[in-house]
Amino acid sequence: MNTFTDVQAMLAAFFESLPWPALMLDECGCVTYTNPLMRETEAAPDADGMLLEKRFPAYFAALHGEVPWLTPQAVAVSRLHAGRTVTECISLHRLPFGACLFVAVQPETAAALGDAQLARLASLGFMVAGVCHELANPLTAINSTIQLLRTSPASPALLEKGLANIAANAQRMLNISRKLNDFSRAGDDARAMLNLRAAVTDAVALLNHDSSMREVNVVCTLDETTVVHVDPGQLQQVLCNVLTNAVQAMRGSGSLYIRDSRPDATHVEIAIHDTGPGIAECDLPRLFEPFFTTKPAGHGTGLGLSISNEIVLAHGGTMRAANDAGGGACFYIRLPAVSA
Prior knowledge:
This protein has helices spanning 4-16, 36-39, 52-55, 57-62, 107-113, 115-151, 156-184, 196-207, 232-249, 304-314; strands spanning 22-25, 31-34, 73-81, 84-95, 99-105, 192-195, 215-221, 227-230, 253-264, 267-274, 318-323, 329-338. It contains ten helices and twelve strands. It is of the alpha+beta class. It starts with a helix and ends with a strand. The strands form two sheets. Strands 6, 7, 8, 9, 10, 11 and 12 form a seven-stranded mixed β-sheet that branches. Strands 2-1-5-4-3 form a five-stranded antiparallel β-sheet. Helices cover 41% and strands 26% of the residues. It folds into two domains: 1-185, PAS domain (Beta-Lactamase); 188-338, Histidine kinase-like ATPase, C-terminal domain (Heat Shock Protein 90, 2-Layer Sandwich), CATH 3.30.565.10.
């Protein structure tokens, strides 16, 4: 199960239940799949394999960049549908297994769902795609190893090697499962009023028990009166993940600067700035994709930032990353603020 076609078959039921039109593209820009709502908007809906440029010219004209589209983007497009002109919000996302998923959200659907719920549902869909693909790889490896050990009497050395391979792949699946479970089990009922400075202080204190923090200087400048309505455990998960990534980027030596600002009357934005080497410009657009990682193979699942982003979206906030002009990387976490 290593091809786009295999994973696409697994995802068909999910995408066919989406409350908005959606399609999939390969890296050449050919349409490989459309869900029922997307097919309803077409004069000739059974044309899989046709270039997006020919099948949906209005969508193609609205997108930026060249094939393959490696950078996620969201734009508005007007097109003729059922004898009238409709304006849609379209979004293009890069999937982990070498393809793109493209959604066209009709205005009435967007209004019914709301911007935050819409972004969350779409993002969850992309995570499902990544999870299916990522779990398929270790499952295939385990199955191949079992078949090899069954074909002939295995020597003690081969048996040991095979069992080690199975254990490593099983552990990877467990790690993915635990991360997803941590994200899914908390809901709105777990949210409470929380002092932001206290939450950040607790997260830093938790990390201070790690030996990798011994040569890291943390400078925290936060308003003492800012209050947010969040799930405390999930916010701690987000903060610890971003802080841990920063410490690893600095290889355990440097400074972390944590500050907050009020971009408007209803939001607070936390900025976590490290003095590490920064993030490669080509990696910035993909940081929040499921299973995308810049770490060596076997180090982490590549789900940390993706799940953190999901948590922040679920709270009605946003998350972004950038390289600081003075050096190092900076992560910005924006959350709705509550009056003290």
